[in-house]
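Think of the structure tokens as a kind of shorthand, similar to the way a musician reads notation: each symbol stands for something richer, in this case the local conformation of the backbone. In the example below we present two proteins back to back. Begin with the first one, reading the sequence and then the tokens, and try to describe in your own words what changes along the chain.
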Amino acid sequence: MITSPSSLRRSERSRRAILRASLDLCTERGYGRVTVEAIAARAGVSKKTIYRWWPSKGAVLLEAFADVLVDATPFVDTGDIGADLRAHVAGAVRVLSVPPFGPAYAGILSELHHDDTLARAVREQLVDPRVEEAVGRLRGAQDQGQIPPGANLPLAVEMLYGPVYYRHVLGKPVQDEETVAALVDHVLRALRAPGY
């Protein structure tokens, strides 16, 4: 006997189709030319379905981008904080350097300046959880004696991510492996400097 899929499965299938469609359209047209209407048509769903789950095209693309970024940049603990941070930052650079993810995130970042709902979503769904995870990984290194007690871990996270996003937003060439290694080494040296 053949049974129809549950509404939950249909919803997940639709969600994935919408996220894929938004990324495909961003690659083909650029962030600015993507519309909710076009996403709905490509995904084979109604606009109402999209608006039931997301308030805007930026929110759709944010979820699609966040899914990929989280998967590509885990916070692993091999016992070597330098190696772990180099791998993590290099993963972020790779995601930001390829369409559709880089252009999608650049579009989201430009739009959040005049969309308070999207700005809040970026902070709550992406930035704050990632910062919390990064601080947690640094705290683990601190507990292992690799980073001195009293080091400002949230500031260290900003120092790590700041150059990556600065280059991305300004359209500068992405960091290569050597530049990422130099960035991580510089931040770790700063954390170990006298006064921390």
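Once you have a description of the first chain, move to the second and do the same.
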Amino acid sequence: MDVRVLGRGPAEPFLGAQDLFETEYDLSMPVRVRIRRDPDERTWTGHYPDHHVLNISAQAATSAMARELALHEYAHMRRNEEAHPSHTQSTAEALYLALAGRRVERRKLTHCYQIANHMKDIYADDITLSVAPADKLVAFLEASLATALADRPHDPPRWQRLTPAADPDITAVNAAFALALCERHDLLTPDHRLYDLAHAAADDAPGVSIERFKHRFKTLVDDPDESEYRKALVDVTHQYAVETGQAAD
């Protein structure tokens, strides 16, 4: 596994993540880590015919989560190289199949893409959590959900939200994802704070069943074929669009 760090920033988190990753896995193509100066640059991975690129902001590269972020992205690269259906299935195709004949609010369509990303993350983190401690990830999920709940709108729901507040519906799905990932790997005690946060998220979004979404994420089969994965993605997307009452025939 060949990792090279480009740009101004520390190499240690990415090389440390490489050491952890190589205890169980490997990548056949080299990895180029590009540290960006823009503090708002999100962490994302690009896949090319002969290499992978991990793009990350300098702020994230120097954070306490830098090694864990890198490890997570290496896991996505591994899933891509092994042509796992979660990483080869066209999200646009699945959404077309799930939402054909329906008019869907733009923000809800954006949420559907986020749900598809959650499913990819489940499979990536099955790798991540097999080689690294889970404490930072659980703390990150807890803090992220708490922040979204603190930022929730206090006014009645509107068709077009005028503030940048977190949307209660997708916050509830995010809570379901967090619980599913943690329960999938037995990371939570029954009294963990994440359950209280998820309960609060459910109260804010009564049209979204956190339990049903949690079950869908948690029970994704380890090694689906293309048809099986496509059906899972179509089903969960359709469930969200219909269940939240925002799609109209």
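Compare your description with these statements about the second chain. Residues 3-82 form a domain with the Double Stranded RNA Binding Domain fold (CATH 3.30.160).
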